[in-house]
Amino acid sequence: MNKRVVIGMSGGVDSSVAALLLKKQGYECVGVTMQIWDSSDVCRMEHEGGCCGQSAVDDARRVAAALGIPYYVVNFRDLFREKVESVFIDEYLKGRTPNPCVACNRYVKWASMLKTADNIGADFIATGHYARTEALSNGRLTVRNSVTAAKDQTYMLYGLSQEQLRRTLMPIGDYDKSEIRKIAQEAGLPVAHKPDSQEICFVPDNDYAGYIDREAGDRVPGPGRFISIDGKDLGPNRGITHYTVGQRKHLGLSMGHPVFVTEIRPETGEVVIGEDSDVYGSCLTADHLNFMAIAPEEMPIGSSRMVSAKIRYSRSASPCRITRTGEDEIRAEFDPKVRAVTPGQSIVCYEEDHVLLGGIIDRKIR
Predict the structure, then answer these.
(1) Is 201 a catalytic residue?
(2) Which of 58, 223, 270, 314 lies at a C-alpha separation of 20 to 30 Å from 150?
(3) Is 41 exposed, middle or buried (0-12, 13-18, 19+ CB in 10 A)?
């Protein structure tokens, strides 16, 4: 009997080709799109071009019809609101810059697809991520870099559990983007040339501060002050939710040369401004750890190891020594320094080409 697989379909070319490849491999495929909006959201998301709007569902349904596979839309609005949107808002209000895709992958996409898979008796779930799963000699599963560094998405997947990985297929990790589009075109899929989505799905206009203003209401902090690293008052800011560490544009400061956000202080509403060199750091702490290629007991408290690590999705990995300093904490030391160590973002640690572990950056030490 063929294995049944639930495929998360976003209406884009990557997940569409994932479904095509798995069908060719003999899997019994069922396409699913997560509905994360309610009726009041639909018009706004469609007007602003959100990747989760009705047009995405329409594209996914057309692809499923072209492939001859069943297709369903499943509502997980409440779960998405709890695990992703609410956390996103709370983190910004604390002066941090979260990465909602990391939380969405583990707590919404994978959780909801596995629930759907269990409901219909499916063996696996699949996505269109540029990554590969790999079984290691220690019995652990991990995600391994895709063949194309330009599209590699392992950074976003470090939070997946062993049970989630055990039932996950990622069929496009062995291809680059041009090959995926070629496969889609040759198969006549209607989304072969559809542009990639670049925005956070629930903030399709990329106006994070505006979104938080709408959703957080009277919890939104008012204007504060810009200050220099040495404590000089530089004038008013618009409120901490408008800024992130490393930001240069849209500060509204006339300093005669480029300046950058180096720190956000939610308790005072201050946004600290410095030179480019002030944005770099060599040491940070991280918590909310997820051990992937190794079990927690394989790295006891007090032990260290050399890895390569990324502190932003779009950055390349840098040499780093990590030390486990607590049950749920690591210290990471970089040499050379890395740019824009940002609380709320993730640090993902690699050995060779696979994810060792990851966590959420808590603070920059130096």
Answers:
(1) yes
(2) 58
(3) middle
